Amino acid sequence: MRISQATLSGLAGDVARPGYDVGAQRCGIVHFGIGAFHRAHQAVYTDDAMAAGDRDWRIIGVSLRSGDVADQLNPQDGLYTVVQRSSGGASARLIGAVSHVIVAPQDPDAVIAALASADTHIVSFTITEKGYHRRPDGALSREDAALASDLAGQGPPRTIYGFLAAGLAQRRAAGLPGLTLVSCDNLANNGARLMSLMRDYLGGTDAALAEWFVQTCRCPSTMVDRIVPAVTDADRSWLADRIGLQDAAAVITEPFCQWVIEDDFAGPRPRWEAVGAQIVADVGDFEAAKLRMLNGAHSALAYLGLARGYQFVHEAIADPALAATVRTLMRCEAAPTLRPAPGLDLDAYADALIARFANTALPHRLIQIAMDGSQKIPQRWLETLAVNQAEGRSCAAILEAVAAWIVHVRGDVRPVDDPMAAKLADLWAEHGAEGIAAALFGEGGVFSATWTASPEAIEAIKGQIAGVAA
Ligand code: CS2
Q1: What is the pLDDT of residues 89-126, one digit of tens each?
Q2: What is the number of the ligand 1 atom nearest to the C-alpha of 295?
Q3: Are 259 and 349 within one domain?
Q4: pLDDT band at residue 469 under the 50/70/90 scheme
Q5: Which of 152, 279, 397, 452 is the Cys-Cys partner for 273 at CB 3.0 to 4.6 Å?
Q6: Is the domain of 372 the same as that of 261?
Q7: Phi and psi at residue 103, in whole multiples of 5°?
Q8: Which intervals hold domain Mannitol dehydrogenase N-terminal (predicted)?
Q9: 75 lies in the same domain as 205
Q10: For a pocket test of ligand 1, which of 41, 129, 186 has the largest count of ligand atoms closer than 8 A to its C-beta?
Q11: In angstroms, what is the span from residue 228 Cα to ligand 1's centroid?
Q12: pLDDT per residue over 217-264, tens digit each?
């Protein structure tokens, strides 16, 4: 039997229930990209905030493309379990914060109506790096088909920009207040970037609305952190035995959870800080440390680990050579580029990250992390490389990882899941092992807006490519 309001009496007694009247809450948040990460992170904080007394903050999820999550959550009245798993054991809790999911291509008007509702105060996003439709230099990628269609006003919206523009126009016309747009994706300065991308989009479509947007809406930056591997069928059947009901929307995660949010809201918000989030004046130092150390190490483990035949993060980090590379990357290459955020000891942070990667109770596939590298490496590696290069330091560990990524995107060993996969394969065909590093990172290269590699760095990558490819 499937979990839902009607079947809850069948749920195992030791699964914690929401500490508030779920059905009595209105929706105050619209969330784009309601994947496993959101369900294990922001939705949990919001569930806790309502249990602590906040009201009317249930979440309407929006899927921009597939109907899969709607099929998982809607028949369950939005209910699902979050399982926390570590070597110490597993615990499960039921989350009531999600109301329902709208599949945007099936019902675009419902998405716009949710954005235009007087009850909505916050719109948040986990749409992954590529959901922002940016070029490698960070500007709006106007040539992208979905974005071009939205900019031209052809048919219903397809991107967050098109939907936001339609929703904001209705709010403005109705005299409603602006919204807080909360990016929860792993981009550097995610709030400021979203603000500037949205302003650029509106500037090209509706200048008066662009002005209203800047005056009334806010885009706080956030740092989000929780490792949430994709759930497998085996996980779901293990969970059904454990909790007594089938749950198609369950998520399995680690005990660790962190959310640092810039204190910059347009209107009301849940008291997330009362339930463990940090609301701070400046997120930048937290964000840079997390992206360059955790995510930087993750991506290095992904490409170097796959090349050595590993499948999971915990296997790769158990390899002494890879552990040494990752430790060097974090402590000697990333850390010197960072200003420690208040209370953050970067050496201790690196050790804690290695312990999290080693969690064998939470198998995390390297191939999941290897996805979309072209969207990830600028903020994970290239900013670190740029700062170190400017200060005369080289970064052997990151360059080794860069070489492994370059070999990965050649695409002849395993499929490359990346919006730039075709372009990267073409570059390989055109430049070969001799010229590919310069085509990507040299003067005028694809990624040179973030890091223009020195001739020495290009040579070092070339040497590594020969090593990895051999
Ligand atoms: C990972 C992240 O898939 C990836 O690229 O590096 O999803 C990572 O697990 C999270 O950012 C941890 O907070």
Answers
A1: 999 999 999 999 999 999 999 999 999 999 999 999 99
A2: 6
A3: no
A4: low
A5: 279
A6: no
A7: -95, 110
A8: 28-273
A9: yes
A10: 186
A11: 8
A12: 999 999 999 999 999 999 999 999 999 999 999 999 999 999 999 999
Q: Span 150-177, mean pLDDT?
A: 97
Query: Which CATH number characterizes residue 117's domain?
Result: 3.40.50.720
How many angstroms does the Cα of residue 124 sit away from the middle of ligand 1? 18
In this structure, the answer to whether residues 18 and 55 fall within a common structural domain is yes
Compute the distance from residue 303 Cα to the ligand 1 centre, in Å. Answer: 14
- Quote the percentage of the chain above a pLDDT of 90: 96
Structure-derived torsion over alpha carbons of residues 162, 30, 185, 274, reported in degrees to the nearest 10 = 150
* Boundary residue ending a domain (280, 312, 343): 280
Among 139-143, 174-178, 381-385, the minimum mean pLDDT is found in 139-143
**Average per-residue pLDDT in the chain?**
97
Q: Which residues pair with 91 in a beta bridge?
A: 84
Whether residue 342 sits in one domain with residue 217: no
The 10 Å Cβ neighbour count of residue 140 is 21
Q: How far apart are CA 391 and CA 111, in angstroms?
A: 48
Q: What radius of gyration, in Å, describes the C-alpha atoms of the chain?
A: 22
Q: Which residues line ligand 1 (CB under 6 A)?
A: 186, 225-227, 294-295, 298, 368-369, 376
39 pLDDT higher than 90: yes
Confidence (pLDDT) at 305:
98
Domain boundary pick from 219, 254, 280:
280
pLDDT tens, residue by residue, 322-357:
999 999 999 999 999 999 888 889 999 999 999 999
Residue 128 alpha carbon to ligand 1 centre in Å: 10
What pLDDT score does 118 carry? 98
Query: Domain with 308 in it: what CATH number?
Result: 1.10.1040.10
User: Which sign, positive or negative, has the C-alpha torsion 27, 31, 35, 39?
Assistant: negative
Closest ligand 1 atom to Cα of 258: 13
Residue 440 CA, ligand 1 centroid: distance in Å: 24
Amino acid at 230: A
Do 46 and 130 share a domain, yes or no? yes
| The one-letter amino acid at 188 | A
Dist CA 240 CA 77 (whole Å): 18
Mutate to test the pocket of ligand 1, among 252, 292, 295, 374 (most ligand atoms within 8 A of CB): 295
Same domain, 200 and 187: yes
Distance CA 159, CA 87 (A): 41
Atom of ligand 1 nearest to the CA of 372: 5
Q: Domain of 309?
A: 284-469
